[in-house]
Amino acid sequence: MVDFMAYDAANEEYNGPPVDAAAFCVADGQGRLLDVGEGLCLLSGYPRAELLSLSLAELEAGGSGTWHTALINTATSGSPARAEIGLRQREGGVRQVEVEAAFLPALGQVILTFRDSAIFSRVLAELRQKSEECDTYFRNSLDLLCVADNSGYFRRLNPAWEEVLGFPLHELLGRKFIDLVHPDDREATMGAMSDLAHQRQVKDFTNRYRVRDGSYRWLEWRAAPAGDLVFAVARDVTDRILAQERLCRSEERYRLLFEEMMSGCALHELICDRDGNPADYRFLAVNGAFERMTGLRAADIVGKTVLEVMPGTERHWIERYGDVALSGRSAEFEEYAGAIGRYYSVRAYCPERGKFAAVFNDITERRLMEDELRRQEQSHRLVLDNIPDIIARFDRELRHLYVSAAITRVTGFPPEHFIGRTNREIGMPDELVDRWDAAINEVFSSGREQRLEFTYQSPRGLRHFETTLIPERGADDSSAAVLVVNHDITELKNAELGMRQLNEELERRVGERTRELELSNRELDSFCSAVSHDLRAPLRHIAGFSRVVAEDYGDRLDHGGRDLLTRIEGGAQRMDTLINELLSLSRTNRSPLECHPVNLSTIAMDVVTDLREAAPDRLVDTEIAPDVMAQCDGNLIRVVLSNLLGNAWKFTSRTERARIEFGVIPSGDQQTFFVRDNGAGFDMNFADKLFVPFQRLHARDDYEGTGIGLATVQRIIHRHGGKIWADAAADRGATFWFTLGDCLGGRPVSP
């Protein structure tokens, strides 16, 4: 990509520099010079007067003296005329130049333009250094740009291919381009490829390429070999080819070159005011390149004045051209045409008094690219000088080529203090110098990025840096320099140290709290066990005495007395149930977990069977997922399912078509189990009370219970390393979800 972009940008530069643009002369059919441009004087070293005394034959150094005859004959026949000659130098040297001739039939004269190949080579060398920054041009070029290998496969294409041929780029990439060439053009195309394979450039080669709709478009190629790759630029010249074919069938063949010149060309007639000052000019003839470069059609402007066509034309254009037409002096310049919004490189000469011809090239892309490059360089410099990281570049002698302004904040020295000096010369400690030099040399030798961390005692104290060393590629793809980015991580290091200290303190506090919690749990379990044991004896006496009174003295009591005895006995039974659940809650933390594979579906079916036997009159639709397995303590999980399914059974007692479901949802490496019902549900605003002992979300008269069951369930789930939560709505049922983790703290048991 790099060489190709440089080649294409250089080609545009080659067609438009000011000095090159003025290298022209006007001659008659016998080769006598009628006018010369300043550029030709610069190329040859002759002053204008001496050049006008020479003929075209005398301009060639060491030649036969007849080179111009064939060139002029070709041009007057209407065919493209080009030649290469050794241009005589006034001081005795020779300069190789390319000559292009165009015949002006209205004047019977020939205009010849000279291009120095050295300009192209110099520009190419300069632009190769910046070729990577020309990628925007590659993507937006109207020409078809491509990179191919010597086997003939497309490797890179710009979007213009899709616009011209209609094929999406992904269908063309990796495809053999000969497949798209018209069968009649394939032999010539392979010949051009042979030239490229022998490292010879191909210029002005045309062939036909197939369009996606089956038609063909003419492309004109310029291609350059670069090792195993070919960099090429093509232009859709279908319209031009078709125009050539039409013109060849007519008697106006002399206009072919004029129309098909790559440079825009126009002939004008000057219009002066009463005082003889230039006031306007009229279009007499324009070529196709003029139309393409200006967007103006010949049919719309020929015969009209420039102020009629473009009323916003700046006055200086009329004055410049007026001087050429009135004085006979040629002119060359670069100027912005505000009426069109484009930059042009122009060379103008006077074919006869009162008229002038202008030959120009659109250099808008080049100028915009140059402006953009300057803007980017300024932006990059501004960014580099303002980011907190220290940016530096080193050459192979380990000397600083560039240092960003951030260096001053760390060392106290300005960037100029470092330029051209090594780390050892600026006083860096020897141990650190050795590490840096070794890392930089490793990047140069391996071409791979390196990283290192180091500390530096700066005027601001000890600073920690994380450094990245990146190779910068040269024209031969070797490491031309090393870019170093130093990121200050002092705050991060200090934060890490503080984090480690904080974690140690947290671990100490968590350990203390864990021991306190374990002690509190043991004391709570002992308390629950003692209280429940001490309560059972009086509770049995109350229940026993109430039954004795009912049996022995029931016939002596009225209805109110018997009702009180019934309530006493019911209260005693509820108290006994509460004591049993308190004991169950306290026992959940006493014994170690015994973990083994458990079929939860089997436990769920056992629980449902017990519930059906206890209430045979109820019709409840139950759905239990088959073979739901989990690694857990089976006895404790039976308590969980008994509570959850029992609650579902209880809270669907007033539902007409009761439904209870148990199942599992896989989620990654973890399973999520659920018990769902369509019963009474509850308001989620009170969900925080669900797992608190003795907290109830329904009245005791509506649904019996102690408020201990869900607290027991939560404790069992937590012991398994899992969690439990609920989702419900009043009168719309409830779903309890739970996971079992990895049975943390458990004792594995063989199945």
How would you sum up this structure, described in words?
- It contains 25 helices and 28 strands.
- The chain is an alpha+beta fold and 751 residues long.
- The chain has a five-stranded antiparallel β-sheet. The chain has a five-stranded antiparallel β-sheet with strand order 7-6-10-9-8, sandwiched between helices.
- Helix 1 runs antiparallel to helix 7, helix 23 crosses helix 24 and helix 24 packs antiparallel against helix 25 (709-719).
Short structural description:
With 751 residues, this protein is of the alpha+beta class. Helices cover 41% and strands 26% of the residues. α24 (634-651) packs antiparallel against α25.
Given the helix and strand composition, which structural class is it?
A: alpha+beta
**What does the radius of gyration come to?**
48 Å
**On the 0-100 scale, what is the average pLDDT?**
82
Measured by DSSP, the beta-strand proportion falls in 25-35%
**Approximate shape:** elongated
Question: Strands of the largest sheet, in order across it?
Answer: 2-1-5-4-3
Low-pLDDT ranges: 1-21, 745-751
Helix content: 40-55%
Largest sheet: 5 strands, antiparallel
Put simply, the count of helices is 25
Oligomer: single chain
Question: Terminal Cα separation, in Å?
Answer: 67 Å
Report the count of strand segments: 28
